[in-house]
Amino acid sequence: MTSTPLAPAPFDHRMAVFGADDEFVAAALPFLVEGLGAPGEPPPVAIAAPDKLDLLRDALGAAAKDIVLIPHTEWYTGSAANAVAQSAGYLAAHAGPGGRIHLLMEPVWNGRAGRSVRESTEWLRYEALANLLFAPMATTALCAYDIRTAGPAIAEAARRAHPDTAVYEDPFRLTAELDAAPLPLPPAGAELLVRPSADAVRRKAVARGLAPADAELFTEAVTAAAAALGAITGALMWGQAPACVCELRTSRRVEDPLAGFVPPPVPELEPDQGLWFTRQVCAYVDVRDDAAGTTVRLQYG
User: Fold this and answer.
1) How many beta carbons lie within 10 A of that of residue 153, not counting itself?
2) Is residue 261 within 8 Å of residue 279, measured between CB atoms?
3) Is residue 49 exposed (0-12), middle (13-18) or buried (19+ Cβ within 10 Å)?
4) Cis link prior to 8 (omega < 30° from 0)?
5) Which of 73, 140, 236, 279 could make an SS bond with 260 (beta carbons 3.0 to 4.6 A apart)?
6) Reported confidence tier of residue 5, pLDDT bands at 50, 70, 90
7) Running DSSP on this structure, what letter comes out for residue 129?
8) Where are the domains of the chain?
9) Do the Cβ atoms of 186 and 169 come closer than 8 Å?
10) What CATH class has 191-299?
11) Are 64 and 56 in contact (CB under 8 A)?
12) Burial class of 216 by CB neighbour count within 10 A (0 to 12, 13 to 18, 19+)
């Protein structure tokens, strides 16, 4: 008897908000047990703070050996774009047919995620775009929001990015709202780059305090973005290490909110995929369209 391939299911993006250890276990345990019983799936994964992983070990008992437990500091190591890459890579390597797997995911709220209004905005963008990026996958994700570390305001905002809440909003509308906020004006001391060539960017990055290896990486990020954007009509640089900034201006409009977030199908990037590399390298990549074109602002650290 031959088995019938499992049909892909939509991405199931859930949210759990809690303020105590027993509330976390009450939300996490049924989810993981659900994953253990899902046909055609590999073991469910819990990505959380080490103390919460200990709670799960105690609650699961002997069944803990059937769960993959990953400290969240090993998963969330940088920007929101890095989290996209980590998730996509894990699904490609470990998920079942069609991306089937259960993932319990708690960001590192005392690290980069949520440490500032700027970072909280980037995290909300990531949560919204996940609904588009992973839509074809049969993945089931439960995002864990501990209000003791994330704070109630972040948890409340994140409800807008989770389809299982009453305040869920269309990802395109939500990201458009985030991008409606104008960027701060460049400082008076910003340097004009006649051409954002690799040599010019590298030289100015070193002059602004970046170590040679960091300056090289930042230069590659800038030139990759410039190649993806096409004809650059203007460029500025400012800031001191580690927060060096380069702003590129193009007459082309970048209207896709997923630009630079979609993992490339092969390691060798095509020119139009340069923003993916840029987002992996830079702490922030801000894209703002207007009637005359697009401004892309890259901050290294």
Assistant:
1) 12
2) yes
3) buried
4) no
5) 279
6) very low
7) H
8) 12-179, 191-299
9) no
10) alpha beta
11) yes
12) middle
Q: Looking at the predicted structure, is the pLDDT value of residue 7 above 90?
A: no
76: Cα separation from own chain's centroid: 9
Q: Which two tokens stand for residue 247?
A: 């702003």
Give all strands (DSSP E) within 25-174, no chain letters. Answer: 45-48, 68-71, 101-105, 139-146
CB 100 within 8 A of CB 139: yes
C-alpha span between 11 and 140 (Å, rounded): 6
Give the strand order in the sheet containing 139-146: 12-18, 139-146, 101-105, 45-48, 68-71
Q: What letter does residue 136 receive in the DSSP assignment?
A: T
Lowest-confidence pick of 38-42, 119-123, 278-282: 119-123
Q: What tokens were used for 19?
A: 């303020």
Report the DSSP beta bridge partners of residue 249.
234, 295
Tokens of 31: 């989810």
Report which of 151, 74, 81 is spatially closest to residue 110, judged by C-alpha positions.
Answer: 151
Residue closest to 298 by CA, chosen among 244, 242, 217? 244
DSSP E strands in 185-299: the ranges are 191-192, 232-238, 245-250, 284-290, 293-299
List Cα–Cα distances, 62 to 32, 65, 102, 110, 274, in angstroms: 14, 6, 19, 31, 46
Task: Record the pTM.
Answer: 0.89
Cα radius of gyration rounded to whole Å, the chain: 21
- Please, are residues 285 and 278 in contact by the beta-carbon 8 Å criterion? yes
pLDDT digits 0-9 by tens, 189-245: 899 998 789 999 999 999 999 999 999 999 999 999 999 998 899 999 999 999 999
Asked whether the beta carbons of 158 and 124 are under 8 A apart, the reply is yes
Q: Which residues pair with 299 in a beta bridge?
A: 245, 284
Report domain 12-179's class: alpha beta
Helix (H, G, I), strand (E, B) or coil at 218: helix
